[in-house]
Fold this protein.
Amino acid sequence: MRILDDIKLDYQDVLLRPKRSTLKSRKDVILERTFTFYHSPKIWTGIPIMTANMATCGTFEMARILSEYKMVTTFHKYYSIKDYEKFFKTFDNPDYICYTSGIREQDIKQIKLMKKKGMLKKFSFICLDVPNGYLQNFLEVIKDIRKMCPEHIIMAGNVVTNEITEEIILAGADIVKIGIGPGSACTTRRMTGVGYPQLSAVIECADSAHGVANERGVGRITADGGQQYPSDIAKAFCGGADFNLFGSMFSGFEQSGGETIIKDGKKYKEYFGSSSNKAMTDYYGKKAEYRASEGRYALIPHKGDIHDFIHELMGSLRSTATYIGARQLKEFPKRATFVKVNRQLTSYLEKYDMGV
Ligand code: 5GP
């Protein structure tokens, strides 16, 4: 047994120190980034924000809207080939959509079939998603998918430590998904005791990913989960995240997935984790007996149309930029000085006892 004494940080444990700024207006801040990658030869330009691959936000409806803003929709795993065939009759913008696959036999069968039908070309991104990215078999699958899809931007995870981040990139991923346990619908920390404070995970894994470099590009990461407010997204970018991926903030809108429910005259939307009993029974028939549910189900107040939220989100990132003196998103890590703060008990209670 070993104890790591070093205190690790969550988003709520820090604030950003304001700095001298030469910016005249928030509208001058550039939020778009252009990335090259370690494996994929693609050059991607957009606002590096992604939906989680959850049924409540990784939807076709969301992709139609987010692609207008050059943000990426990571589809949930439950769409069939037929669903995609129908979707692609009216959608053609590969740069802003990501196909998600698990690593079970039937997942690999589906991805091979998609390739054979020429449908994988319609996505720039592929996400290989497992709750625990430390399994040796996961690396083998990444290697196989990289061989099969040399052009795609492959994202894989989830992990939270530096050595495995490097391994996943070397195995074939371009972007490593960082986060075990911070998600608002996630109960992994409660059920298993496993996790890592998210801001520290982002800082440490970004540092290792960016150290894996070749003539084409560097390894990249996405912060995944635990961003409760737009400020957390800014903090993740400041910590070195290349992309920010999140679920609850994209859920609850008209365009999000999940049923709309009226209760006591108020409008709600369903929000649930991918490992919740709800997801497992809805999409796989039932929860396997050997598995514990590691996801929450909640009804969240209906948030209306998503466009206002996207404008708020971009506005808050521009505002952070002006406070820290960054002219573009790319400069966030260079300009950032974090100040450690006393974590407020209330935000902790809110996160763990009141759900989303
Ligand atoms: P959020 O943005 O809502 O805080 O977190 C979204 C992330 O939580 C997802 O991208 C995924 O990594 C994680 N997640 C989603 N559903 C579940 C679940 O049921 N269990 C666990 N352990 N994590 C989940």
In short: Residues 11-258+303-351 form a domain with the TIM Barrel fold (CATH 3.20.20.70).
